[in-house]
From TrEMBL:
Annotated ranges, domain DUF4209: 131-211
Provenance organism: Pipra filicauda (Wire-tailed manakin)
Gene name as annotated: ERMARD
InterPro entries reported for this sequence: DUF4209 (IPR025209), ERMARD (IPR039635)
Protein name: Endoplasmic reticulum membrane-associated RNA degradation protein isoform X2
Length: 636
């Protein structure tokens, strides 16, 4: 029997007890009128009196507090079930506006009417995400640099000043503390199955959010201030995220079959997978990804704990230990400094995809941004969801029995597998450098189409040839290119003109297409890449300045609005462009050759990097420093 069949829960015994049993131990009923005033406001004192404290240091006693709040949560849940949608909107909607996503909370109310376990879990994940974002906006009323982690946000003095410490303690019992129910982390990290999340806790958080809105309104009126909402993160350049072909209903139907049979899926989590695929079919792309990301994490955690022989790490950690999350699973080494075996099992393309979409700072960082409420859920792009779902399907195929051969070889599945097997990082610093180089080359290529005055008029300007810096650059080009020719591909260079514009584009394209393993790049490589990216940026800035300056000056030349000195400088600039273009193209070639060669040396033996530096110190200084681009700026 596969391990995925034998696992019945990912909650450790203490965590399972806290979430599934502790809040149900007190059987007495609680009157909703004790915490709800006649005009619908939350009586916070009646809620906070259920928070218990340790005698030793007056910190929250989470066990006793959860037990005491259990009947209160049930009373709130029953109360919401007794309301129609219209009644709920009249009584509570205005108190939810402070979150800037009222519709999400109204959806949660709808879900609570039917108590569908999967939908309750989804609603709770969306609720905690939006609540965290809203609390961050409130934090900025009193402080700067909002904490990234929810637990730090809830423990901040800034929120305690606005809402009161007792209120914040209530929230920490439900979310944000590993000592409490910790519902947000348990769900977002894929530890809880649908049936393990009581609906009454979702109802209680909805109730508390409305209560926070009431407290905040009072604070804003008393202090005469306005709550501003930070703008959402918008995914730009979606074409860069285009990895897999567009998924159709046939592919999704096959995926539903794979889910039921793949060893990558824990059977207790099967409803989440089905709900994720259904949401994608229904064009609910944010819901689909929110449901799927925790399941990718738990599936990878299953592989991680199996391959690294640490099965106990499959369960939620206690407050005294760490969860096994994406961060650790994607790392090169385990916490005991042994080599992580998951990359061996997943292989490089899959690891690079995960790093690109989840971790790299310049990537979409989908999980972080969704879980922390940084993305407008209603505008979540299909393009991003398509990539996550398609990648998940490839993992379902890879980790399934051989008797599923017919499904794996299906005509709609094979293209997905092919794309996954040849994936190369797009958001690693090396990949971004390659992109910068090619964009800069395109910019320089535009120089040939710039409007210009006649050659005879340009030739009338004397003196530039005698410029010492220009002579130095020309000599430098000759020396460096003579050394480079022997290493360039034959179809990408010419002995007469090794940096001909057409040949340079071909060479740069070929160099940038060279596969470079970016996974766990050595520190020396990353340090060099930082420098090279700055130089590439400078080159691009120079190119854009040339284009803008040449177009403006030409227009002024035609309109005869240039003074004598300006005309002289304009013609001098046109003359400069003749050799500035080769200079910039040469720098781009050197940048690309450098990153490929240094990476190759470091991958083979990191110690050799120091020897590499000594051997090529003079050449590196030419383009590691910004001498070339500064000289170009001076000439312009």
């Amino acid at each position: 029997m596969a391990l995925s069949d034998s696992v019945t829960t990912c909650l450790s015994q203490p965590v399972h007890y806290a979430i599934c049993k502790l809040g149900f131990e007190k059987k007495d009923t609680y009157d909703i009128n004790n915490i709800l005033s006649g005009n619908g406001e939350v009586c916070w004192q009646a809620v906070t009196e259920h928070v218990c404290y340790l005698e030793s240091d007056q910190s929250v006693d989470y066990i006793k507090s959860i037990r005491s709040l259990g009947p209160v949560c049930e009373s709130v849940n029953v109360h919401f079930k007794s309301l129609t949608k219209e009644q709920f909107i009249i009584q509570y909607a205005s108190w939810l506006h402070w979150t800037n996503c009222t519709e999400v909370f109204l959806e949660v109310f709808d879900v609570l009417q039917y108590t569908q376990t999967t939908e309750v879990a989804l609603g709770l994940m969306k609720l905690t995400s939006c609540l965290e974002r809203a609390l961050g906006d409130v934090y900025l009323l009193k402080g700067n640099d909002c904490p990234f982690l929810l637990r730090d946000l809830l423990a901040s003095k800034q929120l305690a000043v606005i809402f009161g410490q007792a209120v914040m303690n209530v929230l920490r019992i439900f979310i944000g503390s590993p000592y409490g129910l910790n519902l947000r982390n348990v769900l977002w990290h894929g530890f809880a199955s649908p049936q393990e999340i009581p609906a009454k806790y979702c109802a209680m958080l909805l109730f508390l959010t409305a209560g926070l809105g009431q407290l905040l309104q009072t604070y804003l009126l008393q202090n005469k201030c306005i709550l501003l909402h930070r703008p959402y993160v918008i995914f730009v350049s979606l074409e860069e995220l285009d990895v897999f072909p567009d998924l159709n209903n046939e592919t999704l139907s096959i995926a539903e079959e794979l889910v039921k049979l793949s060893s990558f899926v824990l059977k207790t989590m099967l409803p989440f997978w089905i709900a994720a695929l259904t949401a994608f079919k229904q064009s609910r792309y944010a819901d689909s990804v929110i449901l799927l990301l925790p399941q990718l994490e738990v599936g990878l955690r299953l592989l991680f704990t199996t391959t690294n022989k640490c099965p106990n790490r499959l369960l939620t950690a206690e407050s005294s230990a760490f969860y096994t999350t994406f961060d650790e699973m994607l790392a090169k080494h385990l916490d005991n400094n042994e080599v992580n075996q998951l990359p061996v099992v997943l292989e490089e393309p899959a690891m690079e995809f995960l790093w690109d979409f989840l971790n790299h700072q310049e990537g979409p960082r989908v999980r972080d941004r969704l879980s922390h409420g940084e993305i407008n859920l209603e505008a979540f792009p299909r393009e991003v969801a398509n990539q996550i779902v398609a990648f998940a399907i490839t993992l379902l195929c890879r980790f399934s029995d051989e008797n599923m051969f017919s499904l794996k070889e299906h005509t709609v599945i094979k293209p997905l597998m092919n794309c996954a097997s040849c994936y190369q990082s797009r958001f690693h610093p090396i990949s971004r450098l390659k992109k910068q180089v090619l964009e800069c080359m395109k910019s320089i290529h535009l120089w040939s189409g710039l409007p210009t005055v006649s050659e005879e008029q340009v030739q009338t300007i004397k003196g530039l040839e005698e410029n010492a810096e220009a002579s130095t650059l020309i000599l430098m080009i000759s020396e460096i290119t003579s050394q480079l020719v022997q290493y360039m591909p034959q179809n990408c260079c010419s002995s007469d003109d090794p940096i001909n514009s057409v040949l340079t584009e071909r060479l740069l394209t070929e160099l940038c297409d060279t596969r470079v393993c970016t996974l766990y790049s050595p520190r020396p490589v990353l340090e060099i890449v930082v420098i090279l990216r700055k130089i590439s940026t400078q080159c691009h800035q120079v190119s854009e300045q040339v284009i803008a300056g040449a177009e403006v000056r030409y227009t002024q030349w035609v309109n005869k609005t240039l003074r004598s000195r300006q005309r002289h400088n304009y013609l001098r600039m046109l003359n400069s462009i003749k050799f500035l273009s080769p200079v910039l193209r040469l720098i781009l070639i050197l940048i690309t050759v450098e990153v490929v060669s240094v990476h190759a040396v470091c991958k083979k033996n990191p110690f050799d990097y120091q020897q590499y530096l000594k051997k090529h110190q003079d050449q590196l200084e030419v383009y590691r420093s910004s001498h070339c681009t500064n000289t170009v700026k001076h000439l312009l």
